[in-house]
Amino acid sequence: MDKTVLLIEDEPNIIEAISFILMRDGWRVATHSNGVDAVGAVATRRPDLVILDVMLPGRSGYDILRDLRAAEETAELPVLMLTARGQTRDREMAEQLGASRFMAKPFSNAEMLEAVNDLVRS
Amino acid sequence: MASLNLLIFVSLIYVAFLFAVAFGAERAALRGQGSWLRSPLVYTLSLSIYCTAWTFYGAVGYAARSGMEYLTIYLGPSLVMIGWFWAVRKMVRIGRSQNITSIADLISSRYGKSTLLGVLVTVLAVVGTTPYIALQLQSVTLAVAAFSQADVTMRPLGDQNSTALWVAAGLAFFTVLFGTRNLDANERHHGVVMAVAVEAVVKLFALVAVGVFVVWGIGGGVGATLERIDASPLGTWSVAPDRWLALTALSAAALLCLPRMFQVMVVENEEERHLRTASWAFPLYLMAMSLFVVPIAVVGLDLMPAGENPDLFVLSLPLAEGRSGLALLSFLGGFSSATSMVIVASIALSTMVSNHIVMPIWLSRQAGGAMVSGDVRSVVLLSRRLSIVGVLLLGYFYYRVSGGSTALAAIGLISFSGVAQFLPALLGGIFWRGANRIGALAGLLIGGGVWLWCLFLPSFGPGVILSAETMADGPFGVGWLRPYALFGIAGLDPLVHGVFWSLLLNTTALVGLSLFTFPTPMERLQGAQFVNVFDHTAGARGWSGGMAQSEDLMIMAQRILGAAEAQEMFRRAALAQGLEGYLPEPTADFLQMLERDLAGSVGAATAHAMIGQITGGANISVEDLMAVADETAQIMEHSSQLEAKSAELARTARQLRAANEKLTLLSVQKDAFLSQISHELRTPMTSIRAFSEILRESGDLDVTTRTKYSGIIHEEAERLTRLLDDLLDLSVLENAQVRLTLAEVRLRAILDRAVAATGASGRLRLVRRGAEEMVLNTDMDRLSQVFINLISNAQKYCDAESPELTISAREMDGLLIVDFVDNGTGIAPDSQALIFEKFSRIGHQQAGGAGLGLAICREIMARLGGSITYLPGQQGAGFRVTLPMHGAMAAQ
């Protein structure tokens, strides 16, 4: 498979968990943990998939998603949004901005694997 | 025989006694005990600094030289106190309502807070008072010399100058010690006033004792003494009516205008009703002082060898009769007269010099104005201390230059006529709304100039400053400018001539120019305030609010008034506006009150300038606004009721606005609350779920990884527990279900525990000071929870290079106050109202707390009957924990 995923998340323990799950599944995992220069990190690393947390230090995940969709190169890039606030308003907001998929914390590991594999397959 | 050593010994004991009196009075006032300090008797006695060494020694000399004329010196003030009581009362009322610090301040403040007028009055006062101070030094030196002549065992003192220098230095020390202890004019100099009152008693007693000795001891009783008086040239009533009138008017004016009289009469006045007592008691005192002057003079002229200085009869008569004890007492009386005058005069002058000359210069040299760093308070105190020393040095040098030759009374009269130049501006200012700044300036300049030319400069004697030719023919031969015959009118007594012309031209300039020029709006408003002081003691309107930053004002006020006083004043003002915390809205009323308070410390003009710099309104914009307001000023004066109502409305509106703002913010927060709780709970749960699934599903993990992952699960579970604990704690506290375990604990123990619990080894340096030995009756666990929170907040959020947290405890008004102030950047004003709400975190979750800490602290303090507030205007973030002291006891 050998695909690359860029994980943008600020909680160290959650980074460790997701990295472990995905690497065991054969993914190459890159991580980035602040909002300010996240868009730049996507541009330099050119991943096949981005996992993006909503509440990041410095800049909101929504703003980052808006920028990614606005740029030509990343307009079609699969983005999986993660949020710890499981309210419908957050989900609507994510869909409106063009998130490929939305997932509330906490999630099951199987759920996570299924979501990322779906996103790169389609 | 009285020995010089004994004299010096007794003087030193007496001085030590005065120090003790002043010190005791200060202590008593500080403890709030000295109600006897504030009695009308002490006030009246302090007024008696009018009677200086000139009166003590000089009056006798005066009577010996010029007969009954000496009585004018007592007559003038008595007439003012009795007949012009209402004018004096008006001056005192104005002084109190406007926080006036000196006569220069009064005149400057009345004429639109003019700096120039303040400087002019100050300079004239210093020039006019310096000879008078020299006179006091001279009297002490002469008295010591008289003793040393009588003391056959001693060589005559070679150097009288050294005596004068020692006396001047001692007085400077005393005055600096008790005269510059505190800054605000409201906090009066209890120690000095008490010492002056004691000296007043001593000098009266001494003079009466000498009088009794002369009449009954030497003169042979009342009848014999009266015969002796009839036989002497003094008995023939020869008084020049013009001199009599001029001198009475002059001494009356002096009572109102002398800086030292203004100091004791207006500035140190404790209650207005004291004036009522003084209006009859002070004339009585003066009468008692003048009672024995003529007998002493007549007997002295009879008994003493011709050529003996009549100024010293009070001392030399008992010495010649071998009554050394009485002579010692008489010396102490003269010493008291001289020292009390010098002390009060130098306090008054130093206040003027510091407020009207030094501070304006210092302020204008500070580019940033009042906002520069550094403590203005210490600058003011230093400048006052230096001014005191300067004034005394000036007096000493005048004494050296003038050679101490002129008769005492002559110097005194020249001083009187100098300060009498303030009279037109003073009376015009408090009785005539039309008087304006240009008129006052011109009057003072012309009057002061004429006085300098006709009285002051000639007083050094012909050939010293003015040459004999100038005296005889006028400068450069211009005849109508002769100092003793202005405009060619010769033949008048020089003193009458000088007083007549200087006051006539002074008054004419004031009235004429006031009629033909227009006052600025500021002058008009101040004029109305002063002239109609009894109608409304409300204060000048002058500031338009909204522009000023309350926090900046607070920083400035703390520097001038001191931190605790300023905070208390701001808190009260905020409370009066219906706001909580320490920052009132900068309304016109508040700014005006602040200005008046500051004026008590640094003078009206300076306070006005300082607030002007901060409110951003340069004088121009304020005056522009006031020009508009001026039209309506008249109507406003009559509609104060309407104003009160609109003030009430504005207050309510402000309260509503504040409440509304808070509600809006709170509703936004309520929305955020659920999603916050959700976030705080779900984040640790995510890790727990993910790692527990990993552990369950993959049996092939090595031991290290396994241990690590279960460690994470444990850690996150703890985080969850902590959050739930906090939430629970808060909800219990909010619903008042909490049970307090009250016990008596020492504050130090609680703080020690909090410091230990936060792991004091961190980067944060702790500074602890203050009354930590206080014993409290409180819930130790809960209180230390609050302290722990504040300390760990400083550990987390203080962003200084080397973070430092100062914990200071003290007691104020029955409250225990513990301040936690760090040296970071503090909290922005718009966030200060929110930090005590739940889940409010400044910045973005950088430090990992859930944002419940301060909310919990607030609830705990409310349960303990105290409060926790943000303390603005500190160097960094400041929190104030307040607990009522009832139930708390001072350490035994």
Automatic annotation (TrEMBL), chain A:
The lineage of its organism: Bacteria, Pseudomonadati, Pseudomonadota, Alphaproteobacteria, Rhodobacterales. GO terms for biological process: phosphorelay signal transduction system. One of its GO terms (molecular function) is DNA binding. Residues 4-120 form the Response regulatory domain. It comes from the Bacteria. PANTHER family: PROTEIN PILG, STRESS RESPONSE REGULATOR PROTEIN 1. Keywords: DNA-binding, Phosphoprotein, Transcription, Transcription regulation, Two-component regulatory system. It comes from Primorskyibacter flagellatus. This is Response regulator. The modification 4-aspartylphosphate is found at residue 53.
Automatic annotation (TrEMBL), chain B:
PROSITE patterns: HIS_KIN (PS50109), NA_SOLUT_SYMP_3 (PS50283). The chain crosses the membrane at residues 6-29, 41-64, 70-88, 116-135, 163-180, 192-218, 244-262, 282-306, 326-358, 379-399, 405-431, 438-461, 499-518. It is found in: Membrane. Residues 676-887 form the Histidine kinase domain. One of its GO terms (molecular function) is transmembrane transporter activity. One of its GO terms (cellular component) is membrane. It comes from the Bacteria. Belongs to the sodium:solute symporter (SSF) (TC 2.A.21) family. This is histidine kinase. It comes from Primorskyibacter flagellatus.
